[in-house]
Amino acid sequence: xxxxxxxxxxxxxxxxxxxxxxxxxxxxxxxxxxxxxxxxxxxxxxxxxxxxxxxxxxxxxxxxxxxxxxxxxxxxxxxxxxxxxxxxxxxxxxxxxxxxxxxxxxxxxxxxxxxxxxxxxxxxxxxxxxxxxxxxxxxxxxxxxxxxxxxxxxxxxxxxxxxxxxxxxxxxxxxxxxxxxxxxxxxxxxxxxxxxxxxxxxxxxxxxxxxxxxxxxxxxxxxxxxxxxxxxxxxxxxxxxxxxxxxxxxxxxxxxxxxxxxxxxxxxxxxxxxxxxxxxxxxxxxxxxxxxxxxxxxxxxxxxxxxxxxxxxxxxxxxxxxxxxxxxxxxxxxxxxxxxxxxxxxxxxxxxxxxxxxxxxxxxxxxxxxxxxxxxxxxxxxxxxxxxxxxxxx
Length: 394
Hints:
- There is one protein chain.
- The chain has 394 residues and is mainly α.
- It has one domain (16-307).
- Helices cover 71% and strands 2% of the residues.
- A hairpin with a 2-residue loop joins β1 (47-50) and β2.
- α9 (181-199) runs antiparallel to α10.
- The radius of gyration is 22 Å and the shape is globular.
């Protein structure tokens, strides 16, 4: 009897409205993107060595920018999940909830960046800075070279421009996807491939175009299709053992695929080739991530518990603010010589140790502290106030 009960618990139904693997995937993606940006400043080789055993994490760090595509896929999954469960909210409520989720922290971030940028500009630069601020406030900053590549505010915020632009079309797109998932999926992926191959790929310089919404639609589509399939399999009461077993295999295959794609991307050199490599791999990379997300969330209960426990959920809750602050803090800490270094400049190029390690650890710690402060002092109070003000009576 006990063995039978234990087996039933291991293959228990996954909650259709929560994908456990999404919590850990968000933490890993944000952490690896941060590691990539911090590595750009420190040049600390991410290698683990114990005796003769040696493991190089260089490919996963050097190609860390690829994890942004997984975050877009994860966003597509989570945004579509209520629609897949038949619990879609009216468009107005959707926009209000999204605004309450991101705007308070985002506005605070822009205000702080602006305060630091103002002393660095002269009178002739003021119109440029005002354009930079205006583009960020309207989430169009990824459309202009001087507000995307040359921004004086925060370079990582381009992802929020893509996200908000996707928010605008989701309430119209999601019902169509639910009604005709394969047709909608094919249309989204087809549109992305056309933009990637026939438009962006033909340009001499793809800097300004590689991360525009049309070129990211395939990542969103993979997330939405994964959510559609996940809900149906999560509600399936028969063959739970087989579903959990096959889902675990799918999760492992997805993780292996991610590693191989990161390794291949890390061996590409030259900015143009790197951007083209990311475009060429975006669909497959996000598809592998979708396997990890859906497969891990449908797996056996102990696996799901490893993906989503109190520690992982706590870190996942901090991930948004950790993301928007980490790169700016990394640059400022180095500029402020924290921790102190001996070289006159560029201690990374001098290979100065232990500065490289201490700096890396300090960057992660500073971003985590900033995320804690902003999440609990700004994001959550603002969201609670906004829900009482705008949503409780709807």
